[in-house]
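Quarterly update from the structural biology core.
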Amino acid sequence: MKKIFNRIFRSEFNKNVLILSSGTAISQFILVLISPVLTRLYTPEAFGAFAVFLSITAIIGSNINLKYEQAIMLPKEESDAYKIAYLANYLNFIISLIIFICIVIFFDPIANALNIESSKPIWLYFIPLATYFIGFNTVLINLNNRFKNYKSMSGSVVVKNLSMTIVQLLFGFLKLLLDSGLIIGQFVAYILGNRVLRLNVSFKYKEMLSYKYKDLKTVLHRYRDFPRYAFPAGLANATTLNISNLLITSIYSVNDVGQFSLANRIIGAPNVLIAQSVSQVYYQKACEEIKNHGNCKSIFLSTLKKLVVLVVPIYIPLIFISKWIFPFIFGSEWVDAGVFAGFLSILMAVRFVSSTLSNTINAVEKQKIGLITNIILLFVNLIAFGIAYFLKFNILGFVILYSLSLTVAYALFLIIYYKIALKGK
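Predicted structure, tokenized:
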């Protein structure tokens, strides 16, 4: 056993993954531990509204920098990396302001499209602020990743989820703003999580404001392929991952969104717990391997093997037992979530592996391929919804179709990522 541990910790890759995973593990443990309490304090409808809010902000916020933040890893000069970070934050602020203006003007049509009463969703006004925090978070994560500040990245995740659950529990127990308590907790998480990420990087607003357009023009032009290809690809991917909640609320009900989102959140926990951490470290190591050897085949295959070993014991049992354990753990109101979780486990197993290795595209700067694959994913998603809508599938029929169609797509993309890793730049 001692030899196994020594072998694990001798690898820089493994150590970095373990540092990132440890923080994510603690935070996910907190979320899973508290979820049975939250599901008894808040209704499925409140979870549904929370899921819709998270979906909108995730689609916009993860792409609001036009994906320039992904280029932070690439320059040799540290000064150029910070120029990219400042450029991304400028774009973030401008686009967030435009979104706020649009929500003020089109509030009622947006509320009606989401099938929610315009007198209730005051949280729509807070979407631009949330998208700014998310966009800033992606900049800080990439800066910390460049400088291998994995402890800061890990600590940020713990602080985010711990603060969020405390605030959500507080509002739930005091029965304050039960329609928005979950969302308020998320805001606190954004603020404190970003604060931790700023501790070990030199991102300064005063310095950012000193830069003019001419100072940022070089990096704006040098990494123009990121907004050209990575941005639409990222937008398509984020839409694919989050549009289900928006379409379910418009086609079915907010209650169904709540059931689906809880199943997605719990079954997707291993993706957040392990896959994202591995993906961040994999991207850094893949970039290094490409610089040294011209391709990243070695790190791709070693990471693939580790991911497969992790997938089997996590997801296979969930396919069969989730329909019983969900109502037992979360309460009798959540029976449907347990049934949904069994089918979503199949999708999550394949997505776990495929999404982690999708950073291969960024490492070799093949953003065009990323754009194509993500557009395909989006169309597969929309086609599944179209079939369910026109053939009048019930919510369970939709979940089955959604899971199987996306599972096939992710499996095919995994093959594409391997061929790209093999070829290199």
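The first helix runs from residue 2 to 10.
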